[in-house]
Amino acid sequence: MKRKLSIGVVGLGYWGPNLARNFSLSSAARVAGLCDLDAGRLEKVRALYPEAARFNNFCEMLSDVSLDAVVVATPVRQHYHLARAALLAGKHVLVEKPLAASVAECEDLVSLAAARGLTLMVGHTFLYSAPIELIASLIASGDLGEIRYINSQRLNLGLFQKDINVVWDLAPHDLSILLHLLGSEPKSLNCQGHAHITPGIEDVANLSMAFAHGQFATIQSSWLEPRKVRQMTIVGSRKMVVYDDIAPIEKIRIYDVRVERPPHYGSFGEFHYAYHYGDSYIPRMEQREPLRRMCEHFLESILSGTRPLSCGQSGLEVVRILEACTRSLRSNGAAVSLAPVVSEERVLALEVGMDERRIDGSYIANVG
Asked: 130-244+250-286 is classed in which CATH architecture?
């Protein structure tokens, strides 16, 4: 019988319990440690994971040599310090999105994981969902034609954050999907937003991105909507797709519609756009929990030593865009050019700060 991987989860607020639940359901893992500053949260999970050791100090949980991996589900400001400490302790790490609060922090984590031969993965959950897998296969097969633009909306009332704006909170989901589907980063972007509730923290934002091959993408993020909206439209030169994540069953609808410009015309009177209106259909998809698949993928990556789909490098790419969004927001929506993508070889070659000093209590998880 194969030994199960021992998992420690730090942060038991909003998302941590969901991660712990999915790892506990896996035949390849067991939840061996749980950490949070809040004693009440630790007490709530006692009955669910009676065999798991409970800690209110992250240093103490890391010193438990039986842990194989650590899952970080804390506020963004703590991601880097907790993930770095776990990597230095020789643990594989899964970090909730976004990977860290800056590109510099992400680069350090990626290079450190590579130097230690450890798996570093980001919680870009939607990459493991059946709808996104289907859309990716439609694009790869050429069934949609050339992708022209993608529009995404992620709207709801709350949850308001105190330390990050709505772009850093909601847009990482959409950005990870866009980068996965298009296979490239944007060359420039504009981001406009406004803070209605908390001064200095935008609760509504619109992001527009231009890509090197002519594709265009927009993301609308809001904490100030009466409805919960999770919708993405992918427009190709041959077909179009609408993905509605709120729909209970029929999440994907494919439209056989397009518009074509006549290749040749001699006069304005001969110029006519050609509109094609075909059928729309709903493909059948297997119903499965993306978070469960993401957790299983993390375990498989550790056991096989292979690079995960949502690796540290992909987390770095998302944070690069988020940083550019911040610069655009602070410049009243001015266009920001993104420098050429830092190659993975460059990231892995960055000097790793082998700071082995003992982490102090300031790095204890506090989900607030």
From this structure: 2-Layer Sandwich (3.30)
How far apart are alpha carbons 307 and 299 in whole angstroms? 11
DSSP string, 200-266: TS-SEEEEEEEETTS-EEEEEEESEEEEEEEEEEEEESS-EEEEETTSSS--EEEEEEEEE--S--S
Q: Which of 149, 221, 159, 227 is nearest to 191 (CA)?
A: 221
Q: What average pLDDT is seen over the chain? A: 90
DSSP, collapsed to helix, strand or coil, labels residue 150 as: strand
Q: Which two tokens stand for residue 3?
A: 């030994």
Residue with the two structure tokens 């709808």 = 131
Contact between 45 and 52 under an 8 Å Cβ cutoff? The reply is yes
- List the strands of the sheet with 252-260, edge to edge: 274-281, 252-260, 240-244, 224-236, 147-157, 216-222, 204-211, 186-194, 336-337
Other CB atoms within 10 A of residue 316 CB: 23
**Nearest residue to 313 via CA among 349, 342, 336, 352:** 342
Q: Work out the burial of residue 140: count CB atoms within 10 Å of its CB; fewer than 13 is exposed, 13-18 middle, 19 or more buried.
A: exposed
Pick the closest to residue 179 from 153, 148, 150, 141 (CA basis): 150
- Residue 265 has which token pair? 């015309």
Domain 5-126+291-363 has CATH 3.30.565.10: no
pLDDT digits over 59-89, tens only?
A: 999 998 799 999 999 999 999 999 999 999 9
Domain boundaries, the chain: 5-126+291-363, 130-244+250-286
Q: What is the pTM of this model?
A: 0.89
